[in-house]
Design brief:
This protein is mainly alpha-helical. About 85% of the residues lie in helices and about 0% in strands. It has 17 helices and no strands.
């Protein structure tokens, strides 16, 4: 694997740490700012919205830029946004700062994922994407638990400062190790206005829509996994935290496995298998949610499946774009990054509705129905597309 892809992974670690760390520090930030928890929670929403907007739209606008210029600019913006959030004295400033950092998050992951596939042979594209996204899963598995602990016992500003430092280290790595022509070998740069039109390309939207459904299904439960464990499995807060750590560890493992499976089976088949496995795991949670041992196993599995989906879904959409609109590969990558973030946001909304109007027990079944809708969306993808995606891989 080219060394620069590991630099991408380091940058992704900083991005992932920023995205997930605040969830564990909401209470600490709330106490510091003398603000309600739900208001502080908007900082999470602001980041996700920024990532959703930044991934496709900023990728399209910067399509004429060299890939190195885009990624350097992105990490500068991210580092500044992260620093501003660290120095914030009120929720409003933090919301704006995190929105800006979120814009950079979406753009960087979109560009780095597409560039990574250009740096390796087609049969290694899944592994290359998995390597980039391994930074995110390592942030979830290792960075967030450590950062949450430091932020809780010392200061949340210390944890946020560490995020800024990681971002700056990644920036320095890009400056020295990313060649100026990286990723430009086969990209056909389109005019920014034309690139924006690709965001609404039906075949690309359909590809990203599968990602939206898959992640909505997964996060319908995962967003509320803590209250689910408290109310249904009847575990203590400490036990729940151990189970969440288990989720993070297996997410990192699943990301690596997902890249290898994608290369071995093809992205199309891999995504289909992942959606079926995710549905099956959620069904088992519905029937065995009261068992601590079984839930521990199922949470580990759902963590692995959810993040095995990342390289598979990303490689799938990029492969579709490479055949139909090769000049739109970065935009397609951005659409799929937006799909992940949209799925996370929609999952929290759907889960909240189910809890309010039905019961927390039905989070699993709601997730199953949405995942199966993703399978249906894949089945209605034109048969020609499926064949061509395999050929391209």
């Amino acid at each position: 694997m080219p060394f620069v892809i590991y630099i991408f992974s380091l940058c992704a670690f900083a991005l992932g740490l920023t995205e997930f760390l605040v969830i564990g520090l909401v209470s600490a930030i709330s106490d510091d700012f003398q603000a309600s928890v739900d208001i502080v929670g908007l900082t999470v929403t602001a980041y996700a919205v920024g990532a959703t907007i930044g991934a496709p739209f900023l990728t399209a606008i910067t399509t004429k830029w060299s890939r190195k210029s885009v990624m350097l600019t992105t990490m500068i913006i991210f580092s500044l946004g992260s620093l501003a959030a660290t120095l914030s004295n009120n929720v409003e400033t933090m919301i704006v700062s995190r929105f800006v950092a979120g814009l950079a998050h979406g753009l960087f992951l979109a560009v780095s994922a597409s560039v990574a596939t250009e740096l390796v042979p087609p049969k290694k594209s899944g592994a290359a994407v998995a390597c980039v996204f391994s930074g995110l899963t390592l942030a979830l598995a290792i960075g967030v638990p450590i950062g949450t602990y430091l932020g809780s016992v010392i200061s949340w500003k210390l944890s946020f400062s560490l995020v800024t430092i990681f971002g700056l280290v990644g920036l320095i790595g890009l400056i020295f190790w990313m060649p100026a022509n990286t990723g430009n070998k086969s990209n056909i740069a389109a005019h920014p206005i034309k690139s924006l039109s690709y965001i609404f390309n039906p075949i690309l939207l359909l590809g990203a829509f599968v990602t939206v459904l898959g992640y909505t299904g997964a996060f319908t439960l995962y967003t509320y996994i803590s209250p689910f464990l408290y109310q249904v499995t009847k575990v203590s807060i400490q036990t729940a935290s151990y189970m969440m750590l288990l989720y993070g560890i297996f997410a990192a493992i699943g990301n690596i496995i997902g890249g290898k499976v994608t290369d071995a089976l093809g992205a199309e088949r891999s995504v289909m298998i992942i959606l079926f496995l995710l549905s099956f795991d959620l069904i088992l949670m519905y029937f065995f949610g009261h068992s601590l041992v079984v839930m521990g196993i199922l949470i580990a599995i759902i963590g692995a499946i959810s993040y095995a989906a990342v390289p598979a879904m990303q490689a799938r959409v990029i492969s579709i774009a490479k055949y139909y609109v090769p000049e739109a590969v970065p935009i397609a990558s951005g659409l799929n990054i937006a799909g992940f973030n949209s799925g996370i946001a929609l999952g929290s909304i759907v889960g909240g509705i189910l809890i309010s109007h039905v019961s927390i027990n039905y989070l699993t079944l709601g997730g199953v129905m949405i995942c199966l809708a993703g399978v249906c969306a894949m089945m209605f993808t034109p048969k020609q597309t499926k064949v061509l995606v395999h050929q391209d891989e």
